[in-house]
Amino acid sequence: MNQQSIRNFAIIAHVDHGKSTLADRLLEITNTVPKEKMAEQFLDQNPISRERGITIKLAPVRMKYKVQDSTSEYILNLIDTPGHVDFSYEVSRTLAACEGAILLVDATQGIQAQTVAHYKEALKETLTLIPVINKIDLPNAQAEIVTKDLNSVFGFKKEEILYISAKNGENVTLLIDEIIKRIPPPSGKKEKPLRALIFDAVYDEFRGVVAYVKVVDGEIKKHDSIKFFQNNVTSEISDIGYFSPNLVSSDKLQTGEIGYVITGIKNIRQCRIGDTIITSQKSEEEVQALPGYQLPKPMVFFGMYPKNSNDFVLLKESLNKLILNDTALTYTDEYSSYLGSGFRVGFLGLLHAEIIKERLKQEFNLDILLTMPQVLYKKSFDSAQDKGKMLEPYMKLSVYTPKDSVGPVMNVCQGRLGELANMAYHDNYVVLSYDMPYSMFIRGLSNELKAASNGYASIDYELSTYKEANLTPLEVRVNDNPIDVLSETIYEEEASRVAREKALKLKNSLPRQQFRQVIQVLVAGNILAREEIPPFRKDVLQKMSGGDRRRKDKLLDAQKKGKSRMLSHAKISIPQEALLSMIENG
Ligand code: GTP
Q: Which of 233, 326, 376, 538 has the most other CB atoms within 10 Å of its CB?
């Protein structure tokens, strides 16, 4: 195949601006998927993303296209990308494998937080961008205003912009022609030694690890002996091919092509996303590794326990499989005296955690329990004797909001310790920039912003620095037994309120027992809240007939002593449902 006829591109856009719908039209127009087989949003094969209507995993696809009135045939490799802020690292992975991208903007919504975030990523990769305004069929489309904003924010000229409806296909063929005209073919060298970039990987039950690659230089053939650069692992290629969108075998992949490689590697840790594949005859000195990706850093941590403790091993295996194509997921072992063996799992954000929980359920039939989320805190020490100061991560938060919600949005941000750093007015929206503790996300910031803007605000964030924080540990005890899974780190200012709320909530969740239960919430070692659950009063007098007062008192007395003995010896057992109700509602 002629390298000059390959176009590798992505569609980048804010959530819901129409990426998947546009991808469907492209598949149709190029006859990649016959119309009768076209389930809506074909690329979005992950059942969870279908349910939620957002793209989570990227799925590449190869399309063939003949330009009208010409004999030249082109190969278009489209890589669909996720739009949610929690998954922006996947976008940067995709972009590194492309030469160009369609910057898709909804004509009714205009530029939003992820439009700008993805635009910046694309610039870093020096991609050719085609600005496209979508949904022009809608009566409330504001193509002119959005055109102005595309000009003032990114500098695109009116003549560069395409106006389409991904839904009814208007101007989509024109867009394909522009992709061919404007996006350059891959620039790698055929005669150079092989270098292929792994931009994604999945684990297949039967075939092992399937690596998604872009051949940057040279070519790669079936039965080639290859080496994974970073791990120095050597292996033979058992199958190779491209996505159409299902896997289609071929003999080789040439310079500039995007496809898959199966090597028979079973150990999923050996195939690192971002790694370079080279031929095993070449040494690392002879071939330079391609720039890898910045590994995404998990920011939110949860304890994760199987609801059924027999599922512990299955949970571990399942996490290992998920980690293969989700480099942001990390875990370490954790043990709770109440929930047994589990893991401390790191996620990119709350949505990421929710999605992993659903994937564990749907793909591995696992019911899991996530304990209270925590962000990554640090401690700083001035001297060896120093007890240390708690530091917490801060972010630069950008809120994109319509003009009429600026007031309420500012109120939310100020209430969440945000310091206004900048405010920029555009034609139909405002961008507010704040310095704010990252932990506000786990305290409900996203929902508050949505509510303050009637659902219109969109956000983007970048982690900035660690700052000193008035943080303090909170511990919950029942009859002097610390309940490990209920401990957390909170702000000092909210200590007494949170302590009172926790104590009361636990009181309402715990069933009565034969003995008295004393709930204490300690903050920095001091009891800030206390609740009591009285025991069932067993009627020890029931069997007594006569009314001997002295015997009666003696029995009651014995019962009292028995109870206090039970209290001090009782190894408190807490029903799982009670813990669940505490943990799952935060
Ligand atoms: P994420 O995967 O969540 O990032 O969303 P997406 O960008 O892939 O958006 P998607 O294609 O799922 O479209 C979002 C909604 O907009 C769907 O209800 C589409 O039917 C609708 N939509 C997309 N393009 C058009 C269009 O040109 N016109 C109209 N009227 N609706 C459209």
A: 326
> Predicted confidence band at 268 (pLDDT cuts at 50, 70, 90)?
low
* Mean pLDDT value across residues 522-545: 80
pTM of the model: 0.74
Of 12, 21, 85, 102, the one to substitute when testing ligand 1's pocket (max ligand atoms within 8 A of C-beta) is 21
The pLDDT tens digits for 561-584 are 655 554 444 456 777 777 777 776
Q: How do residues 341-356 score in pLDDT, each as one tens digit?
A: 999 999 988 888 888 9
Q: 498 and 463, same structural domain?
A: no
Q: Tell whether 88 and 140 lie within a shared domain.
A: yes
Tell me: do 163 and 312 sit in the same domain. Answer: no
At 477, which CATH number? 3.30.70.2570
Residues 464 and 484 occupy one common structural domain: no
* Domain-ending residue, one of 425, 442, 468: 468
Please choose from 11, 12, 14, 20 the residue to mutate so as to test ligand 1's pocket, defined by most ligand atoms within 8 A of CB.
20
Question: Would you say the CB of residue 303 lies under 6 angstroms from ligand 1?
Answer: no
CA distance 197 to 99: 14
Q: Is 520 in the pocket of ligand 1 (CB under 6 A)?
A: no
Same domain? 361 vs 419: no
Q: Which amino acid is at 213?
A: V
Q: Residue 254: give the domain boundaries.
A: 195-279
For residues 326 and 347, give the distance between their C-alpha atoms in angstroms, rounded to a whole number.
10
Residue 16 beta carbon below 6 angstroms from any ligand 1 atom: yes
Residues 362-411 pLDDT 10s: 889 999 988 888 888 888 776 666 677 889 999 999 999 999 999 999 99
> What SS3 state is found at 21?
helix
Distance of CA 546 to the CA centre of its chain: 71
pLDDT surpasses 80 at 87: no
d(CA 519, CA 503): 6
Q: Does the C-beta of 166 come closer than 6 Å to ligand 1? A: yes
Exposure on the CB side of residue 24, measured as CA atoms within 13 A? 19
Q: What is the mean pLDDT of the chain?
A: 84
3-state SS record for 111-136: CCHHHHHHHHHHHHCCCEEEEEEECC
Confidence (pLDDT) at 568: 45
> What amino acid is encoded at 5 in this protein?
S
Which H or E element spans position 139?
A: none
- Which residue, chain included where needed, has tokens 């941590």? 301
Ligand 1 atom index nearest CA of 23? 11
Percent of the chain with pLDDT over 70: 85
Contact 544, 554 (CB under 8 A): no
Which protein residue's CA is at the shortest distance from atom 16 of ligand 1? 18
**Whether the CB of 46 sits within 6 Å of ligand 1:** no
Would you say 203 and 321 are in contact if contact means Cβ atoms under 8 Å apart?
yes
Report helix, strand or coil for 509: helix
* Average pLDDT, integer, range 501-526: 90
